[in-house]
Input
Amino acid sequence: MNQQEKRVIRDFAPIILNSLEVKDIIPYLWQHGLISQSVTEELLELNETRRTKCKKFLDYVLTVDSKCTFEGLLSALRFNNVYDFIADKLRKELVSNELFYDYSDALKQTTTVDENAQGDMLFQSVRKIPILTSERKRLTEFSIKLKHLSHNAEFDSLEKVTCSIKQTFYKDKLNNNKQVRGKMSLADMYFLSMEALVSLRRQKYDAAEDATNYFEEMTALIPFTTDPRISSMVYLARCGSSVAMDTKKRFCS
Output
């Protein structure tokens, strides 16, 4: 037995001493090689009270030389369904202890790392990005509609929508009377439509292409979107996917 298993048995010794009749489980333990014949004979022939016999049994189980395992003891207690309640308590306590000590060890390791890494940005709390805003939900719905066009291969319709948004975006961009928030919303819509076009066309990234390249347009739009961080993540994901597809195509050809 390991130390945790022995600790559980010691903690529940009062219940075991008050309930267990050693002669009920000794034959099972001996038949399964979990206790020696000499110890078996000693406990069965011992002219002492039930409680004293039980105490001697526990002393043997907890010794270093004991062959009795924790699982073996539980099986013996459950034999003939006589001491199921003791076995269940021991099992439950062991599981609780294992969870507690595992958590304690992890907590100690975390504390040690934090103490040694003070000032390191990798271990500082990361500020949450407010993604699930009402504006973001609206843009998500718009993106889903664009993706439907993309998945249905309706390129003409998707390109028409994109061109319309593009014209409105550049027109309002130069209009000082337009609110900044409205301009950013148009930039978001334009960016999402470009992302949908990339998805449909499966464009590969090529830095040498001219300014009409979809990826270059997306890159230019990022600073004008509502949240450039989210736009950057979307761009990198789409760009990485396109690079991977192009690499796979070259590898297979």
About this structure: Residues 134-252 form one domain. Residues 168 and 186 are 8 Å apart (CA to CA).
